[in-house]
Amino acid sequence: MGKATKTIIILFICFAAISGLSGCTARNEEGFAIYLTKDDIPPGSMEVLSHVEKSSEPVLTEQDIISYDAGDHTILLEPAAMVKLNDLELSTRGKTFLVCADGLPIYWGAFWTPLSSMSFEGVVIMLPGFAGENVIEISLGYPGESFYTGSDPRNDKRVLDALEKAGKLKYKP
Fold first, then answer.
1. At CA 51, angle to CA 46 and CA 57, rounded to 5?
2. Is the pTM of this model over 0.90?
3. Are 61 and 125 in contact, with CB atoms under 8 Å apart?
4. Which of 143, 86, 138 minimizes the C-alpha distance to 107?
5. Dihedral sign, CA of 159, 122, 104, 58?
6. Cis before residue 128, ω within 30 degrees of 0?
């Protein structure tokens, strides 16, 4: 084996080792994102959060958000992001989503339509949004908060920290 071949092999091994090490230590810096569930799990059939896979691409990212107000849980979106959400195909049974921080699912909810006559006891984002132009609200229960059961996950520290780090958090409770 020639000297040039040995050098190429050694460089290849070094490159592979460095690439492998950086992949093992890299932290997901995605920040705040909302994903649909991988298999479009209906809200009524939603499994335990740790067993639900997210879709390959987020439906909302930090780049889509102008600001997040943790006092009333409203999100001011870029106009294109609002169009993208309003283009989601929703049934009257809702469409599940996962709120994630740095790639980890923190809590789940459902995009919901006001055309639905079904109540829902989870976290809801109503589409189309009624909180104002290019504004959505992460609310509890449908048709109102009295239908919500459980503790409120919306002020999870990991979610608020991700939004604050991105400079999107308008108000922190």
1. 85
2. no
3. no
4. 138
5. negative
6. yes
User: Which one, of 61, 80, 85, lies nearest residue 168 by Cα?
Assistant: 61
Nearest to 138 by CA among 59, 43, 70: 70
Pull the structure tokens for residue 108.
Answer: 């789940």
Instruction: Specify the amino acid at residue 103.
Output: G
Tokens 């449908």 belong to residue: 142
Half-sphere exposure in the Cβ direction for 102 (13 Å, CA): 12
Amino acid identity of residue 153, one-letter, is: P
Q: Give pLDDT tens digits for 97-126.
A: 999 999 999 999 999 999 999 999 999 999
pLDDT band at 8 (very low <50, low <70, confident <90, very high): very low
Instruction: Print the SS3 string covering the chain.
Output: CCHHHHHHHHHHHHHHHHHHHHHHHCCCCCCEEEEEECCCCCHHHCCCHHHCCECCCCCEEHHHEEEEECCCCEEEECHHHHHHHHCCCCCCCCEEEEEEECCEEEEEEEEECCCCCCCEEEEEEECCCCCCCCEEEEEEEECCHHHCCCCCCCCCHHHHHHHHHCCCEEECC
